[in-house]
Design brief:
Length: 208
C-alpha cells in the first residue's frame, strides 16, 4: 500500500461528481497511484497556487536565450502549435526559452510553476522541440519530466477533422487536440484556434 505524503491522516467523506470520480479512478490506475494519493496531490497543487507557497524544491535555472533573431523555420509563427509539453503548445516552451519573445514572462511563469509541481509528484511529458535543444535538455534533467510517447490519438483525429472541417495546416492543430483527448490531459497554449476543438476542462489559454 502506498504511504500518504501527509502525516496523521484523517478519514473523511467526500461527495464527488460521478463523472469526475470515474476520471480520477482511471487516472490513478494509469499512474499507479491510490485514489487517496491522487486527491492529496490535487489538493496540494490547488493550495500552493492559491497561497503562493513555494514548492519544496527549487525550480531549476533554465538556459533562457537573450539574443536577437527569430525562431527556426519550423516554428516561425508563434501562434501555431507543433508539439506538447504535458499537452502544452511547443511555442509556450519557445516563448519561455527566449527573453526577447513577446510572451516570455507569461510562458516562463507557467513553466516554472509546472516544474515546481513536479516536487509534488506531478509529471510533465515533452515532445522533441525543433528549436532550443539546450532548453529542452534542461527540462528533461528535471525529475518527473520525460519525452511523451504518443498513442491512441489516430482514431480520434479523422472524426475531429471531419466535424470541424480541418484542412491544411489546421490538421496539425487537430492532431494535437486528438492527442490531448486521447491522453485526457490539458492543453496549455496561446492559440485560440483550439477553443472549438477541446472542452474547456482540457484547455488552458495563456494570455500574452
Amino acid at each position: 500500500m502506498q504511504k500518504s505524503a501527509w502525516p496523521d491522516p484523517v478519514r473523511t467523506t467526500l461527495d464527488l461528481d460521478d463523472g469526475l470520480l470515474a476520471e480520477a479512478k482511471a487516472l490513478a490506475a494509469r499512474e499507479r497511484l491510490t485514489l487517496t494519493r491522487l486527491i492529496e496531490e490535487g489538493l496540494a497543487l490547488r493550495l500552493r497556487r492559491a497561497t503562493g507557497v513555494a514548492a519544496a524544491t527549487a525550480c531549476p535555472v533554465l538556459p533562457v536565450h537573450a539574443g536577437r533573431g527569430g525562431l527556426t523555420a519550423a516554428v516561425a509563427d508563434p501562434r501555431r502549435n507543433s508539439a506538447l509539453l504535458d499537452a502544452a503548445d511547443v511555442n509556450v516552451l519557445v516563448a519561455a526559452s527566449r527573453s526577447d519573445h513577446p510572451h516570455h514572462p507569461v510562458a516562463l511563469h507557467w513553466l516554472e510553476e509546472a516544474l515546481a509541481a513536479c516536487s509534488l509528484g506531478q509529471r510533465l511529458a515533452v515532445l522533441p522541440m525543433v528549436a532550443a535543444q539546450e532548453f529542452l535538455g534542461a527540462l528533461l534533467a528535471v525529475d518527473g519530466v520525460q519525452l511523451m510517447a504518443l498513442s491512441g490519438e489516430w482514431p480520434l483525429l479523422e472524426p475531429l477533422c471531419r466535424e470541424h472541417q480541418l484542412v491544411g495546416n489546421a490538421i496539425s492543430a487537430g492532431w494535437i487536440a486528438a492527442a490531448v483527448l486521447a491522453r485526457r490531459e490539458c492543453l496549455v497554449t496561446f492559440d485560440r484556434d483550439f477553443v472549438p476543438l477541446l472542452p474547456s476542462r482540457q484547455l488552458l489559454l495563456l494570455e500574452g
